[in-house]
Design a protein that fits this description.
The complex is a heterodimer. Chain A has 5 helices and 5 strands, in the order E-E-H-E-E-E-H-H-H-H. Chain A is α+β, with helices and mostly antiparallel strands. Chain A folds into 2 domains: 77 residues, Ubiquitin-like (UB roll), CATH 3.10.20.30; 66 residues, [2Fe-2S]-binding domain (DNA polymerase, domain 1, Orthogonal Bundle), CATH 1.10.150. In chain A, helix 2 crosses helix 5. The relative contact order of chain A is 0.16. Chain B has an 8-stranded mixed sheet, with helices on both faces. In chain B, strands 7-15-14-13-8 form a 5-stranded mixed sheet, sandwiched between helices. The chains are: A alpha+beta, B alpha+beta.
Chain lengths: 159, 765
């Protein structure tokens, strides 16, 4: 298999690596960078467990080839808390009981982050739509939606 | 009522920090040095004889390190009924059955190797319909049914048929009941084949040590069962078979039995003498792991003019697919409970577990309860409507209550059924005037809790931190939090000072398994007793240290002190340190737990009548109500509100109970309205999340979980489990609501818009 040299930034850390052209971003994150917070579940782009942000936008890392993200910025759950401080979404998920088995949580939080970054004060319906690509089989979603809304309320209103 | 400091509080779960940051480790995240990747070749046929397997080309592929097929494996049965080996030997009996497996340096090579294995099959006629499979003269899926080893003496296969188990329940004289009845109702209900859809697929990582000992990481609900079965299959002593279970990314029953994944991983690791990871992909999850039993449930109910149930006859057929797996257990419990949570003098049930050439059906959250509840609660609604009695009233009129005798002869205790019915009705606004096009339905249920046995150890470390060792799995249901609260309550240490290590059969005490809603009750009791033992040891050591009589000491706030003089005391850290040098040794409380005076599997059922004074640890009860609208032009159902009142005995953590109920309700919505594995000649046609719809966030209505507490005398602090019942009454509550607004009565799950629409059209015509 052909390999290519790529540079990419993951969670604000620069990496310089050679990867086979058929490997997905999900595989490279988990196997080469040991960032196992991003989950492997359907490899079909349907469940959202492997969601990461690419330059701030939601992508399915299982459908994204690693060589296609050269030079771009990747954010995974592993890099979301800064200096030991939880991201407000992580704190809200904890406080509002939005986590059960935890396997969907990383992808769910990143989908929510992408929403709040572009639209800080969404309606409940907008929150539900934003996470419709992320399957959770444990929680019934109610507390996840609540947690995202609570986190959004903590973002100051800009007039 | 006595008050507790931690029990009864909705504290935040203890594992959420790790899970929110992505740091939590699951089996899927395990990688060992030199690890190979396993892949499984599966049968393309529903029923065929294996004539020949040629593996030579695959074995010579570069990167292939091990290959196993039926002729290489120990011929020992995997599970309760020895009808299945880890790979097929002579025959394949469903599309997706493992036929051979390879381990290679990477997944692509393993995939390539599968393509090089040549299998000659001789196709056999398949059986897909369970009723045809039960017919006299049907071809046999298991010709040697009578010769299989039975792990449980009560397993009742009928040789010469496709019936792998039959449970009978007989009480009173059902025919006399029907003769006496004002009306008799006969209806046939069915349920679809559905999948658990845990987000973490089945996965196992097996490694062989220098002395032939095996270490297995597995995403399983039952590490001790897996250890025991693998030790049997591979003839390895239990102490050399170590099973480690990191966090489990959802189970819902799919991981509660030993599956083919763990033994194939071990078989490959033994052959390769290297660590092997076997992870299923999503389509294998759909096609080759256990499913929920499709059922055919025929109910006949005799009722007096005023709605009193006089006689109930149920013929339940559990379509268990190619192998028995947990099917006989599901059929057994379904056979006991099929007449519903009602007081009925005359009951007759036949609960039949039948082989077909389809995916294997096994444990699924609810363990049969969801299917039988769908049937008896739809039946109750049919009766109520026909007799002109309010559906809530007819249930209250017949519901079991404290001291009532169940159909299986048990005198019932801790019965919060009527309270649940009233609470659900009140919360949904039962009886209020509804806008046109809107309807309400109600349904209730009873569900057993499996007893078995559980044990625990509670250790106080030198820094005063307490570790709770137990054998139950944390798979999202919150068990680590529940045992933390129990230990905290008993020892008087803050929850922040308690940790719960991952399960490792080398260190963790035995548990029967994380299924059947049993861990809060059984493991909770073991932890309570072990914590009491640790507390006694702490007081004893402190009595020596402080020279104060044992009886005058109290253990609170992480400190033991004299009740006479609270300033005089020692911290747990000091006691633990002191104990290291004391003949009594380190502070390690321990206990096992099983029901007092009761066999650990419960009192056996009478084989002819199903009667048993105590078959289960306890019974839980619930009632749910739904408010829906139905689009008359399309048949599309919109659920406006779902209310669920569940008797949990006592809520150790009310928030946790609500979380369990909410999650189950949404799973219930999916299995009621759209979830169904479609089959074409035995092949599952929709094995992906694109084609098999599970509920998404936008599908979820307002959910109202309500906790009812009817404490159980044997439960830890009165608690019972609530993991499974949450989706059992959902289907009938929704179905009854649909009927209330459309007059359409659908008896087959799922209730799709197409079915509603065509029924509505038929009624109009």
């Amino acid at each position: 298999m052909k390999a290519k040299h790529i540079e990419l930034v993951v969670n604000e850390k620069a990496y310089d690596m050679t990867v086979a052209v058929n490997r997905t971003l999900l595989e490279v994150l988990r196997e080469d960078l040991n960032l196992t917070g991003t989950k492997f579940s359907c490899e079909d782009g349907e469940c959202g467990a492997c969601t990461v942000l690419l330059d701030g936008k939601v992508v399915r890392s299982c459908l994204t080839l690693a060589v296609d993200v050269r030079g771009r910025k990747v954010t995974t759950i592993d890099g979301l808390s800064q200096n030991g401080e939880l991201h407000p979404l992580q704190a809200a998920f904890i406080e509002h009981g939005a986590i059960q088995c935890g396997f969907c949580t990383p992808g769910m939080i990143l989908s929510a982050k992408a929403l709040l970054d572009r639209h800080p004060h969404p309606t409940e319906e907008e929150v539900r739509t934003a996470i419709d690509g992320n399957i959770c089989r444990c929680t019934g979603y109610t507390r996840i939606v609540k947690a995202i809304l609570v986190a959004s309320q903590k973002i100051p209103m800009v007039s | 009522m006595c008050s507790y400091s931690v029990v009864g509080k909705g504290i935040s779960r203890v594992d959420v920090m790790e899970k929110a940051t992505g740091a939590a480790q699951y089996t899927f995240d395990i990688r060992l040095p030199g690890m190979l990747y396993g892949k499984v070749l599966r049968s393309p046929y529903a029923h065929a004889r294996i004539v020949h397997i040629d593996t030579s080309r695959a074995e010579h592929l570069k990167g292939v390190k091990a290959l196993i097929c039926g002729r290489d494996i120990p011929p020992r049965g995997l599970f309760h009924l020895g009808d299945q080996t880890l790979l097929a030997t002579d025959k394949v009996r469903f599309v997706g059955e493992p036929v051979a497996a390879v381990a290679a340096t990477d997944r692509d090579t393993a995939d390539e190797a599968l393509d090089l294995i040549e299998v000659d099959y001789e196709e056999l006629p398949p059986l897909f319909d369970p009723e045809e499979a039960m017919a006299e003269g049907a071809l046999l899926i298991h010709e040697k049914l009578g010769e299989y080893h039975r792990l449980m003496p009560w397993l009742h296969p009928i040789p010469g048929t496709n019936i792998c188990h039959l449970t009978k329940l007989r009480r009173g004289d059902v025919e006399a009941g029907f003769r006496e009845a004002y009306r008799v109702y006969e209806n046939r209900f069915t349920t679809s084949m559905v999948q658990h859809c845990s987000l973490e697929p089945h996965v196992a990582v097996a490694a062989v040590g220098a002395t032939g000992d095996i270490t297995l990481y597995a995403s399983t609900q039952s590490p001790f069962l897996v250890r025991e079965r693998l030790s049997h299959v591979f003839q390895i002593p239990i102490s050399k078979m170590r099973v480690i279970v990191p966090y489990v990314g959802g189970g819902f029953g799919a991981k509660s039995a030993v599956t083919t994944v763990e033994p194939i991983a071990v078989g490959l690791a033994l052959k390769a003498q290297a660590p092997v990871k076997l992870q299923l992909d999503r389509s294998e999850e759909f096609t080759s792991t256990v499913v929920r039993h499709p059922t055919v449930i025929n109910l006949k109910t005799g009722v007096s003019r005023d709605g009193k149930l006089l006689a109930s006859k149920a013929k339940v057929i559990w379509d268990t697919g190619a192998y028995a797996d947990d099917g006989p257990f599901v059929a057994r419990w379904g056979g006991l409970t099929a007449s519903g949570p009602y007081q009925i003098e005359n009951v007759w049930n036949d609960s039949c577990c039948v082989y077909t050439n389809k995916a294997v059906a096994g444990a699924f959250r609810g363990f049969g309860c969801s299917q039988i509840t769908w049937a008896h609660e739809s039946q109750m609604d049919i009766i109520a409507r026909d007799l002109g009695i309010d559906p809530l009233e007819i249930r209250l009129k017949n519901a079991v209550e404290e001291g009532a005798t169940a159909a299986w002869g048990e005198k019932l205790h801790s019965v919060g059924l009527k309270a649940s019915l009233r609470a659900a009705a009140e919360a949904i606004g039962w009886g209020k005037k509804l806008p046109p096009g809107t309807g309400m339905g109600i349904a209730c249920m009873h569900k057993f809790t499996v007893a078995l046995m559980s044990s625990a150890m509670v250790k106080v470390n030198d820094d005063g931190r307490v570790e709770v060792f137990k054998g139950s799995i944390e798979m999202g249901q919150g068990n680590n939090t529940i045992v933390t609260q129990i230990a905290s309550e008993v020892i008087g240490v803050p929850v922040e000072q308690i940790s719960v290590p991952e399960i490792d059969t080398r260190f963790s005490p035995y548990n029967g398994g994380t299924f059947g809603s049993r861990d809060t009750f059984m493991v909770g009791n073991a932890v309570r007793l072990a914590a009491e033992d640790a507390r006694r040891q702490l007081l004893k050591a402190a009595a020596e240290m402080l020279k104060v009589p044992f009886e005058e000491l109290r253990c609170e706030g992480g400190r033991v002190f004299s009740s006479e003089n609270p300033a005089e005391g020692v911290y747990l850290a000091e006691i633990a340190y002191y104990s290291n040098a004391s003949p009594a040794g380190p502070i390690i409380g321990k206990s096992g737990y099983s029901l007092k005076g009761i066999p650990f599997r419960g009192i056996p059922l009478d084989p002819e009548t199903g009667q048993s004074e105590r078959p289960a640890a306890c019974w839980t009860y619930a009632a749910q109500a739904a408010e829906v609208t139905v689009d008359k032009d399309t048949g599309t159902v919109r659920i406006l509100k779902l209310v669920a009142a569940h008797d949990v005995g006592r809520a150790i953590n009310p928030t946790n109970c609500e979380q369990q109920i909410e999650g189950a309700l949404v799973m219930g919505i999916g299995t009621t309205l759209y979830e169904e594995l479609g089959l074409d000649a035995g092949r599952i046609v929709n094995p992906s999340f694109a084609d098999y719809k599970v509920p998404r966030a936008s599908d979820v209505p307002e959910l109202v979980p309500i906790i009812i507490e009817a404490p159980h005398r044997d439960g830890p602090f009165g608690a019972k489990g609530v993991g499974e019942p949450g989706l059992a009454p959902t289907a009938a509550a929704i179905g009854n609501a649909i009927c209330a607004t459309t007059s359409v009565r659908l008896k087959d799950l799922p209730i799709t818009p197409e079915k509603i629409f065509s029924e509505m059209k038929e009624r109009e015509a």
